[in-house]
Structure formats: structure tokens, C-alpha cells
Design a protein that fits this description.
The chain is mainly α and about 270 residues long. The protein has helices at about 5-15, 35-55, 60-65, 70-95, 100-105, 120-125, 135-155, 160-190, 195-210, 220-225, 235-250. It binds fe (ii) ion (FE2) (2 copies). InterPro entries: Aromatic_CoA_ox/epox, Ferritin-like, Ferritin-like_SF, PaaA_PaaC.
Length: about 270
């Protein structure tokens, strides 16, 4: 290549270095992306890794408490998959120079900007002492379903290694949602139309809606421009809401997802 051609190639590279198309940025590109891109990417990945870790650790005691052997086996596999999801993302962060401890500090809001409390109330309430098996299954039915929309969005991200990890995660989350739904159907068939069922289901539905975080801000537009979050929180939340409504319409049980407060933070009115 002549030196003139090389000079033009470098000039072009400076004019439009990144278009942020899905999967267009890899590890070797990271030193050249804007500092803000790296900052936002690390924050999103740290929050995801932390949520996946909580999904594994908060639910782990239910391996021993599952109602029978078959459910114990399926549930143990789910916990192992959640642990692997968190490992996949922490591992990528480590390769970017962010240690696990540092990532946890970012996710918990001790570094960067704090997160809104209501976003993580779902994952953090999986370990509540008052929970029953059905609560754990409703967590998979609602929180993993909300997660499916977020993870699906991350599959389109501009940072290729993260997008690819999310494709693996998405496949497994679909299985978790299916198990949660099957267990919900069994529960409704056994328990019938109880007020307790309506309370529990509406509570976990509200937690699922809150999981998307507060309505989008100007930061959302920046994340979209960088190809880190192509759809904003509100769009994803509405997709989740439409799917949940379809599921309960099909069950003929729309009454089970009643909200008292229908904006962020969402509330069922049943929290005890
Ligand atoms: Fe997961
Ligand atoms: Fe899951």
C-alpha cells in the first residue's frame, strides 16, 4: 500500500471511526472509542452481571426446598445457568480491566451514578423469608421475562463480545420463563381463584415493570446513539407489558394482574 493510500485511510478512520452498528466494536477497538462509550458500557455490563449474580445467589436455598425431586433438578439447572450468566459478563469486564469487586461497586451505586431503588427490588426480594415456592416461580415468570426483553436488546449491542454473551443468556432465560409459567399454571389449577394468588401475581408483575428502571432520560438517547441500548426503557417495558397481558388474556385471568399505581415505581397495592 502506498503512503498516500495509508494517509487517506487514517484520515477516513478519524472522520468516522465507529458507526456503532450491532457487533461492530471488539476488544482491540476499546482504546479508541470515546471515554463516555466505555463508561456507559461498563455501567450496563456491571448492572447486568450483578443482577445475574443475585438471580443465582438469592434463589439458591430453594434447590433444597423445591416441592419434589423433578422440580429440584430443573431448578438446580436454572441456578447454575444464572451463575454462569454472571460469570460470562464479569469475565468480559475483567478483560476490559474492571475487576469483579469494582463492577459490584458500580452496580450497587457506590461508583458512577446511583440506580433507582425500585429497579432492583425484584431480584433482591427473591431471598425474602416470607417467600413460598410460587413466589420463586413468579420471579422466573415475571423478572426473567422482563430480563428477556433487556437481554434481547443487548444482543443487538455494538460491543460484539457482550452481544454474543447475551445471545447465549437469552436462550437460557427462555427456558426459565417456560418453567415459571408451567408452575404458575399448576398453581392456579390447584389453588383456584384465591385472593392470595391475585396478590402474589400482581406484586411480582409490578416488580417486573420496575425492573426496567425509571422512564428514559436524555441518557437513553446517548445509549441508543452508541448502539448500547437500541430501545429505551419505556419501549422495552411496554413490550413486556403487552406480552404479560397476552399471557393472562389467554389464561382468561386478566384480573390477576391488577395495579394500583400504574407508573414508575409501579405498585400493586398489595405490598405487605
Ligand atoms: Fe440469567
Ligand atoms: Fe433466569
Amino acid at each position: 500500500m502506498s503512503s498516500t493510500v495509508t494517509a487517506i485511510a487514517i484520515a477516513d478512520a478519524h472522520a468516522a471511526p465507529f458507526d456503532y452498528a450491532p457487533g461492530s466494536i471488539d476488544f482491540p477497538d476499546l482504546p479508541n472509542v470515546p471515554e463516555e462509550y466505555r463508561h456507559e458500557l461498563i455501567r450496563l455490563m456491571a448492572i447486568q452481571a450483578y443482577s445475574e449474580e443475585k438471580a443465582a445467589t438469592e434463589g439458591i436455598e430453594w434447590i433444597a426446598n423445591a416441592p419434589d425431586y423433578k422440580r429440584r433438578r430443573v431448578f438446580a439447572k436454572i441456578i447454575a445457568e444464572e451463575a454462569r450468566h454472571s460469570y460470562l459478563i464479569y469475565n468480559l469486564l475483567e478483560r476490559m480491566g474492571v475487576a469483579e469487586k469494582q463492577a459490584i461497586a458500580i452496580a450497587e451505586g457506590r461508583a458512577h451514578r446511583p440506580m433507582h431503588d425500585a429497579s432492583l427490588e425484584g431480584p433482591l426480594s427473591v431471598g425474602d423469608e416470607s417467600n413460598e415456592w410460587i413466589d420463586i416461580m413468579l420471579n422466573h415468570m415475571f423478572l426473567d421475562r422482563a430480563g428477556k426483553f433487556m437481554v434481547g436488546n443487548f444482543c443487538e449491542a455494538s460491543f460484539k463480545p457482550w452481544a454474543e454473551a447475551n445471545q447465549t443468556i437469552l436462550r437460557e432465560e427462555r427456558g426459565h420463563i417456560g418453567f415459571g409459567f408451567a408452575e404458575l399454571r399448576t398453581y392456579l389449577a390447584e389453588k383456584g381463584e384465591t385472593n392470595e394468588a391475585r396478590i402474589k401475581i400482581s406484586n411480582w408483575y409490578a416488580k417486573g415493570l420496575n425492573f426496567f428502571g425509571p422512564p428514559s432520560t436524555s441518557r437513553g438517547a446517548r445509549l441508543s446513539a452508541y448502539g448500547l441500548k437500541r430501545k429505551d426503557n419505556e419501549t422495552l417495558r411496554n413490550e413486556f407489558r403487552a406480552e404479560v397481558e397476552d399471557v393472562f388474556n389467554e389464561l382468561g385471568r386478566q384480573d390477576l394482574i391488577e395495579l394500583e399505581k400504574n407508573d414508575f415505581p409501579y405498585r400493586s397495592g398489595n405490598e405487605g
